[in-house]
TrEMBL record, chain A:
Belongs to the binding-protein-dependent transport system permease family. It comes from the Bacteria. The lineage of its organism: Bacteria, Pseudomonadati, Pseudomonadota, Alphaproteobacteria, Rhodobacterales. This is ABC transporter permease. It is a multi-pass membrane protein. Residues 83-296 form the ABC transmembrane type-1 domain. It is found in: Cell membrane. It comes from Pseudohalocynthiibacter aestuariivivens.
Automatic annotation (TrEMBL), chain B:
Gene3D superfamilies: P-loop containing nucleotide triphosphate hydrolases (3.40.50.300). Residues 9-240 form the ABC transporter domain. InterPro entries: AAA+_ATPase, ABC_transporter-like_ATP-bd, ABC_transporter-like_CS, ABC_transporter_ATP-bind, P-loop_NTPase. Keywords: ATP-binding, Nucleotide-binding, Transport. This is ABC transporter ATP-binding protein. Transmembrane segments: none annotated.
Length: 307, 261
């Protein structure tokens, strides 16, 4: 791999900047403490202190790694202090929202392609929906859905009847999934409209010469043509869905999930916790996008598309 | 008219409404094509030769006059799947194998699995692509792709084959070879072929009837019944007869332009 050296160089540079930033930003606290205690700190003492504070302004990378290790590997995954537990809460909302959003997006795209009225009316609304800050909509939606009692997946009673106790991720899942869907349907609509319209006039004429039905044209021409667009949309959609789930967790109850960890972290000045949740979210996003990418390569290869 | 008439156009007019006003694509076109004819349409771009072919295929709606295919209106004939159409580009689906592409019309028309396999094998052999059924389009050369698209048009055994500059994008050597194969195929299947081209040698070499057209408005300026024997090889292009016919085609094209000035 020839690219490994450039990549490592960039990583090393980022680390250096991060450490320098940590020393600089945390030194104020260290110096204040020393002044109050009436002692002088040497440069090496400042460095040691700034990289080992309990609530640093900017935690050093190794502190974040330690925090991640402690909250994932060393904690039982059912513990409320486990990042795996919170990651699963977020992941479940992300996936459910992604499924909703993708389904809605595909349906809308089919409607837009086949109905002129929908083409004229739906698209402007879809665009408008994305211009409204999700941060403003999320709390309102959570409140509304709480009021009408649509918060738990399957409902508490059903879940208890099925599983004995209500699984943790099901509690408060619906508002988060709806917000995740709200963000993820849009790229799917845009991509699928483009994809379903990808066949050119000649290919559509060819179907006419066969006197093909609308359904045959859809299943045999439009849908296969849209696949490359579909997967590209899914990659954007799943990342948007994760963002939606995390944003929703900032206002949802109970306060759980990666968004919840960030929120409680900021309440109590637990910067380590915030950073660990951030890294967790980034890893989750990379994994999800990677998964869709693998699915894309597999599907397109099976369809015989030129690799 | 005898019952051998396959396609008949009477005073056909076709006008496109564009943003720059109406464009008279076809004006007063009269033509009869008999069963087993190989008819070429030749003329400069904009002369309406492709539009005429598309009107036969009911891909365009005439503004005036009538066009019948197999005694029906062109649209009825389309719905009865009376013809196979070959476009300028092969237009094979990249996600289907060659055999899968040829099966496409058969699937749409509801053939059984066994029938499909049989038809696919038959037409693959007709276009000399035996053994390529499992390949994907991108694995084939341009000429082979175009042959596959001809196979696709032949797959459901329509009696009429309409071809819109099928070899226009190919180089001359490949083109000569495909022309030879097309004549062979025509002799074996006895189909009626409508063939749009802008190459004089191609038109003369292939056709039993050459329709010379001219633009603005698109109309027929000459219809030449070829005197060449049905069974011909590429060498025939060096005979005096061939040169005479080509000369007449060229005259017809020039006359069409003269009206313009």
């Amino acid at each position: 791999m020839r690219s490994i050296i450039p990549i490592l160089t960039v990583v090393a540079a980022l680390m250096a900047i991060w450490y320098a930033g940590a020393i600089w930003m945390n030194s104020k606290w260290a110096l204040d403490q020393a002044e109050r205690a009436g002692v002088e700190l040497s440069l090496s003492e400042i460095v040691t202190d700034t990289l080992a504070q309990e609530r640093p302004v900017l935690p050093a990378p190794h502190q974040v790694v330690t925090e991640l290790w402690q909250t994932t590997v060393e904690k039982n995954i059912t513990s409320k202090r486990s990042l795996v537990f919170h990651g699963w809460i977020t992941l479940s909302a992300t996936l459910l929202g992604f499924i909703f959003g993708t389904g809605l997006g595909v349906l809308l795209a089919v409607g837009i392609v086949y109905s002129r009225a929908m083409d004229m009316s739906v698209m402007p609304w879809a665009i408008a929906s994305q211009t409204i800050p999700i941060l403003a909509i999320a709390p309102m939606l959570v409140v509304v859905m709480n009021t009408i009692g649509a918060t738990d997946f399957l409902g508490k009673d059903t879940a208890e009847a099925l599983f004995g106790t209500q699984p943790a991720f099901m509690k408060g899942l619906l508002p988060k999934a709806v917000i995740a869907a709200y963000l993820s349907f849009f790229p799917v609509v845009v991509g699928m409209v483009k994809g379903l319209r990808a066949p050119d006039a000649m290919q559509l004429d060819l179907m006419r010469t066969y006197s093909a039905s609308g359904a045959a044209t859809f299943w045999k021409l439009r849908l296969p043509s849209s696949m490359p667009y579909f997967f590209t949309s899914l990659k954007i959609g799943i990342a948007a869905s994760l963002v939606g789930a995390i944003v929703a967790e900032l206002s949802a109850s109970p306060i759980r999930g990666l968004g919840g960890r960030m929120l409680t972290g900021s309440y109590y000045g637990q910067t380590l916790q915030i950073w660990a949740a951030l890294i967790g979210a980034a890893v989750l996003a990379a994994a999800l996008v990677g998964l869709i990418g693998a699915l894309q390569r597999g599907t397109l290869r099976r369809m015989g598309m030129k690799p | 008219m005898d019952q051998d008439v396959v396609i008949e156009a009477n005073n056909l007019d076709l006008t496109f409404q564009t943003n720059d006003g109406p464009v008279h694509a076809l004006k007063d076109v009269n033509l009869t094509i008999n069963k087993g004819d190989f008819v070429s349409f030749i003329g400069p771009s904009g002369c309406g030769k492709t539009t005429f072919l598309r009107a036969m295929a009911a891909l365009e709606e005439p503004s005036n006059g009538s066009i019948t295919v197999n005694g029906m209106s062109a649209d009825e004939a389309r719905r009865n799947r009376a013809y196979g159409y070959v476009f300028q580009a092969a237009g094979l689906y990249p996600w289907r194998t060659i055999a899968g592409n040829i099966k496409l019309p058969l699937e749409i028309m509801g053939f059984s699995k066994a029938e499909m396999a049989e038809h696919v094998n038959k037409v693959l052999e007709l276009v000399d692509l035996k053994g390529f059924g499992k390949k994907f389009p991108w694995q084939l050369s341009g000429g082979m792709q175009q042959r596959a698209s001809i196979a696709r048009a032949l797959a459901f055994d329509a009696d009429i084959l309409l071809m819109d500059e099928p070899f226009g994008a190919l180089d001359e050597i490949v083109r000569d070879h495909l022309n030879e194969q097309l004549l062979e195929l025509w002799a074996r299947t006895e189909k009626t072929i409508g063939f749009v081209t802008h190459s004089i040698p191609e038109a003369v070499y292939l056709s039993t009837k050459i329709v010379v057209m001219s633009p603005r408005p698109g109309r027929i300026t000459d219809i030449i019944e070829s005197t060449l024997p049905k069974d011909r090889s590429l060498d025939i292009r060096d005979t005096q007869e061939f040169i005479d016919i080509a000369h007449r085609v060229r005259e017809g094209l020039r006359a069409g332009h003269g009206d313009d000035a």
